[in-house]
Amino acid sequence: MWVGEFHMRLAHHLVKHPSGVWHFRLTVPRDLQPIVGLKVIKKSLGTRDPVMAKAWAYALGARYALAFGRARESTVPKPRYPGFEIQFGEDEGSDLPVPRSLKTDGSPGDNTAALDALRLMLDMRAPRVPKAPVSPPAPEVPRGHRVPTKKAIVAWLAAIKADTLPKTHMIKRAAVESFMTHYGSNRPISEAIREDVSAWVQALRAGGLATPTLANKTGYLASFLEWCVGQGYCAPFPSDKHNPAKGVVIYRKKDKRRRTKETGYKPFSTADIQKLFDAENLEKLPGEARWGLLLGLYTGARVSEIGQLALDDVLEVDGIPCLRLTDEQPGQSLKTEASRRTIPIHPHLLELGLLERVRRLRLAGKTRLFPAVKVGSVNGMGNWLSKAFFRYRGEVGILPPGKGKHGFHSFRSTLIQALQDMRVPAEIRAAYVGHDLDDEHYNSYSREARPGEMLEAIGMVGWDFSTNSLIELLV
Questions:
Q1: 118: confidence class by pLDDT, cuts 50, 70, 90
Q2: Looking at domain 147-251, does it have CATH number 1.10.340.30?
């Protein structure tokens, strides 16, 4: 049985055969069925192109409407048309009604009317769709639009490799190759549509993946498709919303905030800080990891930002010793553009000898604050510090919070909330830790926070632990 596809305004005239070929279907008016000899007129249009099928439907529908109107005129006795009779049959190999003979009363008016009806029916046969209609030549498909998905993915992964952390590169590769497995490696990437992405997402969701993970995967796929447009592998999207991968997974900001509140990094308590920076406990950590923890506590920087610091990133601005968080050196990367910042060094870090450490490393011909860190490591240049802290946290007995978790980024939460307690303005907090306020007016009209302003704010934050005993450990 054929199933009608109601994608067009002429849905009641078009049905689609399981083979994909469109057919014209028209119910003959009941009063004309005895004359036509058919209840339903069905005709293969010989095309799978819905646009062409729609055009044929308009043409055939209009012709049949005129023919039915004239047929009614011929069967209803009127003074000026005494009446004539058309006998219908079927053409061989066709399901269109064809006039076989006609009878009139012999009057000139009746003869004229009969000839008009016959001419109309004969004209109607002229534009009939042939069994194998010749379609107009399709526009030439640009050569790039035939690139197989597998080939496009290989090219994209090679293009982004230099500017992507190895671990992130692996995650992106896993996302797009997962889509390729579902979609087809040899299918042109230009043919991917939103329904393909949706089917892939539903399969992943059925496999147990949560919405945040699906949002990340579709985000990587959207970036890949945008890159394909730039390379000529896909036609340009009319607008951002036409990217097939965008909008398939909806992960609202309020959902993200709720999840972060329930499962995100929680700040350390005062008692936790005392344990973590007790001199006897710190002896359990390697020397570089001790500096890493102190930088995390006083800068609120992300673990990767700390691990990748170069000696050139320690500099003076307006006479104030500062740290520059950037992606200018080999192996460096930033999470967002707002992460690019220059911040004053907390007075306590200066007291503990951070600048002296920098001086010694420069004299030794080093270029990085943590020289042992391998550039281009798979999990990023902060992975060593994150692992060291994870072990250390357990050794000193830091208990997990009731909700959320404790990790290196808990130092970030600890500092931000300490600044809040000091009533430091949001724009100063955001500038110091590298957050985007996501405020159009602030971003458009406000200037960047100056190091002196940030130093005044950060200088108010401090924790009560012995500086002298730490200096001995940090030499």
A1: very low
A2: no
208: left (phi over 0), alpha (psi -120 to 50) or beta: left
Residues of the chain within CATH 1.10.150.130 domain(s) are: 147-251
Q: Which pLDDT value is given to residue 65?
A: 78
What residue ranges of the chain are covered by domains with CATH 1.10.443.10?
A: 264-474
Structural domain 264-474, CATH architecture: Orthogonal Bundle (1.10)
Tell me: the pLDDT tens digits for 167-212? 888 999 999 999 999 999 999 999 999 999 999 999 999 999 888 8
Residue that has been written with the tokens 């995967």 in this structure:
217
Whole-model pTM: value is 0.59
For residue range 254-305, what is the model confidence (pLDDT) as tens digits?
Answer: 666 666 665 678 999 999 999 999 989 999 898 899 999 999 999 999 999 9
Neighbours of 338 (CB within 10 A): 16
